[in-house]
Structure formats: C-alpha cells, structure tokens
C-alpha cells in the first residue's frame, strides 16, 4: 500500500479525471457510498447522526453520505455546516440533498454542545487534505466541543479534521476519531503520530483510482503480504553455507549484554553461521541461549585499531557484518570501526556506538545504519527540524550518505533515499534497552540469506514489531523483554507464512 502526500493524492485525482475520464463528481459519489456502507454495517436506522461539515470537498463527501442514508430511511440526521466558501462540488451536493427534501440543517449556536452530546454517531467532514495554515478560531471551538462533549462514535472522513495529512501534526486542535475512512490510499498523516492515534481505526476505500497511478509515490507501508513475498527461500537441497555467515563485532566490558541479543536475533531468523567476537569475555550467557553461536573473545576491555589484523580472516569470510552494539565510544574503538567499514566490501549493519564513528565516512548502498531517535538527532546534527516527523529529511540524509537508513521509531522509516518504507508494527514493549540490538541481528541474519539491505530491514522491522504485539498480548507491554521477543520470533514468522 502506497502512502501519499496530499499533493500526490491531488495529482492522482487530477489524472484519474483527465487521463481516464473518471471525474471528481464520480469519485465524490463513491466516497459517499463507501462512508454510507461503513455506517450501515454498524448502525441501525433509528441512530441519531450529527454531520459536522466544512464547505470543501471533504464536506461534500459528507453531504453525499448523509443523503444516501436519508434516502435509505435513516431519518434522525442533523447537518451543521461551518464556513462559507463552498466548493463547486459541495454546492452541487447541497442542491442534490435538498432535492431529496432533506431540511434538517442546524446552525452553530449555543445548542451545539447539546447536539453533540445527544448524537450516537458524529461524522466529521470539516476539513480533509485541504487543511491550510492554523485552524480558524471557530473551527477550533467546534472541534473542542466535539472532543469534550461527544457521547457516541466519531467517524472522520479522509483524515481527522485538524491533522496535517503530510506530517500527522495537529494544527491547534484536531478531531479524535474512533474510525477514519480514507480514499485511495493512506496519507502520511495517518501513520505518523499524533495523526495515527487521532485517526483511530483506518479504513481505506479504494474508489475508482487506477492502481498504476499510485506508483508515482515512492513511499509504501510494510505489510504482512510484502514480508511474505520477500522472505528468503530455504531450498531443501542446501547446507549451512547457503544461508550465509554473520560476523558480529560488538560488546565491551562496560556493555556485555547487547551483543548477545544481536547474535540470537541473527541465529533465530535463519542465518547459516553466526560468529560473535567481543573484546572482553562475556559471561557464558550467549552460549546458554544458543549453543550454535560461535563465540570468541579477544580478552581485552574494548576493540582497538590493531584488532583488525586478528579478525581480518573473519571479515573476509563474512557475508554480512554487524558492528556497534555495546562497543562504547573510545577513540580507539571508533578508529577500529572506521577501519572495518573501509576494509570490508560486504554488507554492514552499523548500529549504536558505531553510528558515531561512520559520521565522516563515505558510505555505500550495502551499508545500513540503524539509529533510534536520540542517535538520529545527534548524527544529523541539527536541532532545527523535528526529525521524528521529517521523513523527507531522513530520505535526504540516506541519499546524501549513499547508505540505507532504518530510523527506529514508533513509525519506523526504512529508506535508501529513492524508495521509502514505513513500518507500524510494534508497541512500547520495544521501548527497552536491547530491542535495537535484536533488530540489528535479525537484519544481518536476513542479509546473510541473500536479501539486500532494504529487503532485510523491511522484514526485520515488521517481524520484531509484530512479535512484540503478539507476546505482549499475553504478557503485557510492561513485562515483555527483547529476549522474550527473540524467543517468540517464530510466532510472527508463522503468522506471515500461513497468511
Ligand atoms: N482527492 C481525491 O481524490 C478525492 C477527494 N475527496 C475529498 O476531498 C477532500 C479534499 O477537498 P478540498 O480540496 O476541497 O479540501 P477540504 O479538505 O475539504 O478542505 C477545505 C475546507 O476546509 C476548510 N479549511 C481549510 N483550512 C482551514 C483552517 N485552517 N481552518 C478552518 N477551516 C479550514 C476550508 O474553509 P475555507 O478556508 O475555504 O473557509 C474548506 O471548507 C478530501 O479530503 C476528500 O475528503 C473525495 O471527494 C474523493 C476524491
Ligand atoms: K475530516
């Protein structure tokens, strides 16, 4: 599923009309029908509806839906229209509904609170993708009353009014919907917070948009279907060397645990061989969890420059290298990281402390950087932009670095600057030390099996998030740890494979 900006949606709308002859009037009628269909599934004819509409095409969709319901015998409908600048299609819909003898238009006055609190269902068609600048005062007031006085279900048309469709940000105020019915495809505002939360359950009504037109967007949502198609094959006639060789360079005496989770992640996702090299000796924990992992310690506190000589054979043999988790950030270790990155031509997953070392290096497409919010903020070195909602900055950064970025957040952005994927699986069970290390290992384990860094990052992000959801449904988001997730990775895998 492509994820669109409002400009892309408008372009698709225009092309659908100009190139395919399906005009906006038809699309609006279809939008109305899809809202109507969703409503009749859930509400009886005696339901009290309040349609709160603006005067643009979002409001026009609302008028079409109200008329269809009215025509079908839903008689407890009230419509309130906010604003004066009626769009042509809105005007037309208003004429049509009047021809059906609907006349229960109410005014915005002191009784509005009462209308809101007595409605079983409020339909929000105030503003869709046409939001401009800050919300006007009256609209803010209307939204405030709906959010605070509603008793029934709130359904937003296209996007909750007040949410910016390109960023998910709130303009002064926004409708808190239980459900949002959007058209054609998701907009970015549906998947970035707070828009994602304000949208409630999102339903995408396809309308008659030609599918090919959506490829003008280079951004997609990661879905279970996509993951299923990308999963590496495991041919019967094979042996461990066919599933790749992961080398993990991680850990220090100060942070011994991180490397263990990376190694387990790589092993559990199906890599043929996983070799973990740490500077200082770990407690026996890694082998207790997975005796199949090959483990070597260099018997020192941290990696330093010369260590590359000792491990050069391992580097040459590796089909993918993980570098970073728990390394620490001493100058010597940073130099070691730079040497490994420059020495090897294999795919490399650069995480955690190692992210700071590659700052000044020219990277390449088979290098994937996996920063979380704090790391991203520090490596892009700017406080001026809100990095969490600036996916285009992340894309720019990836393009500039010539690398692939997995920006780990509640909505994870996976991009090489040309194509971008957003993953929305996961929950707060992942907001814990160690989940990033686990992700890194899973990405590497998939690259080892022959996937490119983008494909591996898409699958790993989805499975990590989905497993967190499955495990925490049983154990809660408080209790679930990265190790629980690692051990249950098979549950999300099975769900995808059997879907
Ligand atoms: N694209 C498609 O393919 C299809 C699109 N369709 C539908 O069209 C919608 C887009 O319609 P659109 O372009 O007419 O804009 P829209 O969202 O109604 O916003 C304009 C209204 O908002 C108001 N308003 C704006 N800013 C404001 C503010 N700060 N504060 C207060 N008010 C503000 C503005 O008021 P004004 O400023 O003009 O007084 C005007 O009333 C789209 O979301 C979808 O629902 C479907 O029919 C199917 C096919
Ligand atoms: K809306």
From TrEMBL:
Residue ranges constituting the YjeF N-terminal domain according to the UniProt record: 9-215
Coiled coil: none
Cofactor(s) this protein cannot do without: Mg(2+); K(+)
Record EC number: 4.2.1.136, 5.1.99.6
MF annotations from Gene Ontology: ADP-dependent NAD(P)H-hydrate dehydratase activity; ATP binding; metal ion binding; NAD(P)HX epimerase activity
Keywords: ATP-binding, Isomerase, Lyase, Metal-binding, Multifunctional enzyme, NAD, NADP, Nucleotide-binding, Potassium
Residues binding AMP: 408-412, 436
Function: Catalyzes the epimerization of the S- and R-forms of NAD(P)HX, a damaged form of NAD(P)H that is a result of enzymatic or heat-dependent hydration. This is a prerequisite for the S-specific NAD(P)H-hydrate dehydratase to allow the repair of both epimers of NAD(P)HX. Bifunctional enzyme that catalyzes the epimerization of the S- and R-forms of NAD(P)HX and the dehydration of the S-form of NAD(P)HX at the expense of ADP, which is converted to AMP. This allows the repair of both epimers of NAD(P)HX, a damaged form of NAD(P)H that is a result of enzymatic or heat-dependent hydration.
Assembly information from the UniProt record: Homotetramer.
PANTHER family: ATP-DEPENDENT (S)-NAD(P)H-HYDRATE DEHYDRATASE (PTHR12592:SF0), ATP-DEPENDENT (S)-NAD(P)H-HYDRATE DEHYDRATASE FAMILY MEMBER (PTHR12592)
Name of protein: Bifunctional NAD(P)H-hydrate repair enzyme
Organism: Marinitoga hydrogenitolerans (strain DSM 16785 / JCM 12826 / AT1271)
Name of the coding gene: nnrD
